Amino acid sequence: MSAVAERYAAALADVATAHRAGELVRKDLASFLAEYADSADLRNALETPSLDHEVKNKIIAAVAAKMGLSDIVRNFISLVVSHQRTHLLHEINDDFATEMNRRVGIVEAEVTTARPLSDAEKKELLAVLTKRTGKKVDAQFAEDKALLGGAIVRVGSTVYDGSVREQLNRMRERLESE
Amino acid sequence: MANIKADEISKILREQIENYQQTMAVEEVGTVISVGDGIARIHGLDKCMAGEMIAFPHDVYGIALNLEEDQVGAVLLGDYTEIKEGDTVKRTNNIMSIPVGDGMIGRVVDALGNPIDDKGPIASTQRNPLERIAPGVIDRQPVREPIQTGIKSIDAMIPIGRGQRELIIGDRQLGKTAIIIDTILNQRGGDMICIYCAIGQKRSTVAQVIKTLTDFGAMEHTIVVAATASESASMQYIAPFAACAIGEYFRDTKRHAICFYDDLSKHAQSYREISLLLRRPPGREAFPGDVFFLHSRLLERAAKLNDELGAGSLTALPVIETQAGDISAYIPTNVISITDGQIFLEADLFNSGNRPAVNAGISVSRVGGNAQIKAMRQVSGTLRLDLAQYRDLAAFAQFGTEQLDKATQAQLARGQRLMEILKQDQYQPLPVEKQVLIIFAASNKFLDDIEPSECGRFEAELYPFIETNYSGLFKSLREKKAFDDAIKAEAMKALGDFKERFKSSQQTAQAAEAAKADQAKSAEKAGATA
């Protein structure tokens, strides 16, 4: 959502691609974030203004060594902490995933359907989406009974709405306007 | 809705079901991050265009004004109280446009072109974009036909041509709107379509204007576009562009239209409000940097098209309200420099009874002279000069005129009478031939020996006299539009005749007055002796 998070994500993606360590960085960052979310002590330690950077860096180095994090991720976290942007870490993580996907030509899609799809149906849907967008599609599936039938696919800010609910809405609009 | 039949419904439903697979809505959407003060910030809408209409829920639309890296800033049109954070908004792929057409004539509409006058829906086939590039240099030709405002001081000294942009500027309550209304009234029976755009005015004032126009039968050629003070800043911001889009329809269909923007100071203020809420940096008087462009692009759309394009015209008469006569404030100087001249109204003139309070000294019309009819040019040539000299002398002669030489006194007397005949009551626009005749009378010394206080009566009685006794004079002036020797001679003769009669009636009136006074005196005396 924020331009700042995108900047950090893009920078991290640059470094990760340069070292051909995209997958590693993604995994390490995710595991650090999980730890960060779990441990209130860690959060407090990194966010408190009463500790200076030296101490925080030592903490980060110790945690990274214990978790076996790569140097890139360790340095990146130190940077974010010293810039006082720790509250953006989750957002940066999301943006980083999007950015890495974009670089290798994958788009993210959210698929909402009225009932769960079988594997064959998912495969068919993905094939259609790939054809339509011209890129590989990484889809997240969700369910919403209110759609009544059909599916809504969201790719970036474009929405393909083929749900029965939308059809009915449009039918109503047309009847009202006549 | 009501007159739809059951089988039609089932037919539509059947079609829908048959086409079920083909119809998939592809939309680009965004999410509302924040709403407030008529502004919405939206995340998403990556491909949104500048000025594009955006559809919000609950049938509210917005215009995308700020396209930023990660968000879009939009102004909301209409009732935005139901819009919440997190609502989904859609692109419409349309630049903001409003319905235009002949059906608009005689109607009162809001800034979106919706009727607000209780006369049912407006049938229109065409939509014009609000923002359009003005006609190019090649598409235009010089102004050549006049617009008769019906106001003597304007038609004689500050003539306005079709396709011109003439600013009306002055403090509040000096009769700026009165000039507009008189101009609209004077277009009755003509080929001119008037578009009155009220921006940020009181609803009561707008209702009053509409009532006046209706009462005088002037709504038949008029369209009112109203964005009143109670409407949001965004509606006030687009109102003049809407009026201009409506006017452009007539211009482009080979007709003549005139737009009155009443007033652009309020328009600038509403634009300032929007800009500040969108966090654009403020400049002088807190107006945004592009407030000049805001008005210049609006007024540039007034044009006289060339003959290949049909020679239609759109004239613009913007209004600017000044504070205490300060024309060097930001917005007045901007609009003065954009327009082809200005009509300046002055409080001192207004208060001393010279209404319309047009200051002939600093009012100018840069192009209208070419459009003036020849007869008017012939009689009004020296008018400006005479008045200018009179003003200089009048200031100098305020403490008594006894010691002045004859020539100066004559000049003063002439000026006084000219000022008198340029006075005109509201809602009484004069046809151009009558204007020409009275100015002709004044410049040919017919008024020099008539008391200034009697000039009004002289004028009022002159027109019916000419109509009954010299009915051909007005007709030939109207048709030939110029003074040739024959018309000149006839006018001199007619005026001579009338003056004689006027003088004698004046004398009898004076005699009657004197007799009355005598009678009263003697009665008093009788009473005293008794």
Describe the protein's architecture and organization.
The complex is a heterodimer of chains A (178) and B (530). Chain A has 178 residues and is of the alpha+beta class. Chain A has helices spanning 3-18, 22-38, 40-47, 53-67, 71-82, 89-103, 119-133, 164-177; strands at residues 106-113, 136-143, 151-155, 158-161. In chain A, helix 7 links the parallel strand 1 (106-113) and strand 2 (136-143). In chain A, helix 1 packs across helix 6 (89-103) and helix 4 packs antiparallel against helix 5 (71-82). The longest helix of chain A is centred in the N-terminal third of the chain and has 17 residues, at 22-38. Chain B is elongated and about 105 Å long. In chain B, 41% of the residues lie in helices and 19% in strands. The mean pLDDT of chain B is 91. In chain B, the strands form four sheets. In chain B, strands 8, 12, 13, 14, 15, 16, 17, 18 and 19 form a nine-stranded mixed beta sheet that branches. The N and C termini of chain B lie far apart (91 Å). Chain B has 530 residues and is α/β, with parallel strands linked by helices. Chain B has 16 helices and 19 strands. The interface between A and B is medium-sized, with 20 and 23 residues. Strand 4 of chain A pairs antiparallel with strand 1 of chain B.
Q: Could you name the ranges of chain A where pLDDT drops below 50 across 5 or more consecutive residues?
A: none
Helix content of chain A: 55-70%
Mean pLDDT of chain A: 87
| Widest sheet, order of strands of chain A | 2-1-3-4
Oligomerization category of the chains in this entry: heterodimer
Largest interface: A-B, 20 and 23 residues
Number of separate helices of chain B: 16
| Helix/strand structural class of chain A | alpha+beta
Question: What is the rounded distance between the termini of chain B?
Answer: 91 Å
Total strands of chain B: the figure is 19
Beta percentage of chain A is: 5-15%
> What's the overall geometry of chain B?
elongated
Determine the strand fraction of chain B and express it as a percent band.
15-25%
Radius of gyration of chain A: 21 Å
